[in-house]
Amino acid sequence: MIALSVNVNKIALLRNSRPGNFPCVLTFAQSCIHLGAHGITIHPRPDERHIRPTDARQLAHLIAPLKDIELNIEGNPFCMPTGKYPGFLALIEDTKPDQCTLVPDSSDQLTSDHGFNLREYETQLVPIINRIKSLGVRTSIFIDPDLEQVRRAARIGADRIELYTGPFAQAWGSELSEQIFLQYLAAAKLAAELGMEVNAGHDLNLQNLKQFASIPELTEVSIGHALTVEAITRGLKDALQAFRSALN
């Protein structure tokens, strides 16, 4: 079974557009879990554009005692303390999520748009991965479907990779679609051969998810934007059911 982790960033973004706590990120996450989500994903940024450190701590407290429900915190491991933001690694040490996904986003990015270039960051990431693993937290690295990047991820000790699926989604329905999909198939196969599990995320939706879920090695997907949009139009229960059905 492929696990569905619901990214609740968009709920926090909507909440932050007005004073107060509506919609409540914690309540939305609880509803997702109750309706069958296997986990919750958040991406706390230094600018607190959506998820805040307080959200991360509250969600960690909610999910820690729940059997078979995972909290995945993703972000740039090089983000240092600023304002109310304690720094990414300090937040991981404080919350101890089930999984930490390392993403090379910069402060001026609207959203993640590429994976780590491990040719450049390999040496710097080794002590970070070891530090996270020492907390009992599973590590995942956000990468493009490039075989060299997969090999480097295994070499630095990552437990999983998360394949950046933006190019797959952008090519969906075009002449390049099958060619690009084969790159993801090859990357996932190699990752499994090297002892890593495979996650995926970014711009996956009900139109393209079924094909992507046919990758035999796929363990988990993280979906936020598309699921939130579907929840608005058809209701959260039906949206979650549709995504779980597309996955399995």
Describe it.
The protein is of the alpha/beta class. It has a single domain, classed as Aldolase class I (TIM Barrel, Alpha-Beta Barrel). The chain is built from 11 helices and 8 strands. It has helices spanning 9-15, 25-34, 53-63, 88-95, 118-133, 147-155, 166-171, 177-193, 209-212, 225-234, 236-247, and strands at 3-7, 39-42, 70-75, 99-102, 138-143, 160-164, 197-201, 218-223. It is globular, with a radius of gyration of 17 Å. The chain starts with a strand and ends with a helix.
What count of domains describes the coordinates? 1
CATH fold-level label = TIM Barrel
CATH superfamily: Aldolase class I
Output the strand order for the largest sheet.
Answer: 1-2-3-4-5-6-7-8
**What is the CATH class?**
Alpha Beta
Known CATH architecture: Alpha-Beta Barrel
Find the structural class using helix and strand composition.
Answer: alpha/beta
Radius of gyration: 17 Å
Global mean pLDDT: 95
Which geometry do the CA atoms define? globular
Q: What percent strand? A: 15-25%
- SS element count, helices: 11
Following the backbone from N to C, one meets helices and strands in this order, namely EHHEHEHEHEHEHHEHEHH
Largest sheet: 8 strands, parallel, barrel
Distance between the termini: 6 Å
